[in-house]
Design a protein that fits this description.
Blueprint lengths: L5 H38 L3 H42 L11 H53 L3 H18 L2 H17 L2
Helix pairs in contact: 1-2, 1-3, 2-3, 3-4, 3-5, 4-5
Amino acid sequence: MTPRGAPDLADRARGLLGEARAAGAAVDSAAAELFRLGGEVARAGTRAEAARSGAHVAAERDLVSGLLDELDVIARVADRLVAELDRADGGGRGAADGGAGPRATLVSVRRVIEAADSRGREGMWLGELATDRVRDFAEFELLYSRASQHLDRRRWDAADAVLPRLVALDRALVSTEIGAMLDELKFRLMTSRG
């Protein structure tokens, strides 16, 4: 015997599965774009190159974040449908009464959500790494400019104080342009005292 409302719950479960799959596909697409953009930022040798892709990374991260929120909403709706199924079949978990089809569909919804959530979070993590790299380029340029100003004003100690952070950023960025700028600054610092 089919519990009252089971066909409606089955339709809602199937509809929810469709929504979860659509959201999962959107997460996959946005996460793939984040991976591509993250690769561009990782290969960037200058701040301008990193910043160009960095702006797109921020937009994709926002998109993925919104899609993860959408998946969370779908998961909550699935939880409510499970609760409705429990009430409709008297709290039992048995398949004999017609609740098995919707339950199996809701299990599929959960699997789709979990897989998409995992891929989305990986994309977000890569987006955060790319954003950090863009910030590192910006910080290097700011500190380089300050150190140059200190040298122009003959504030040797102030220029010297900035050097350790510039070296750390150079190591993190692994950029030929940044390395050349740092070498030039070190040379200026060495020769200006002397």
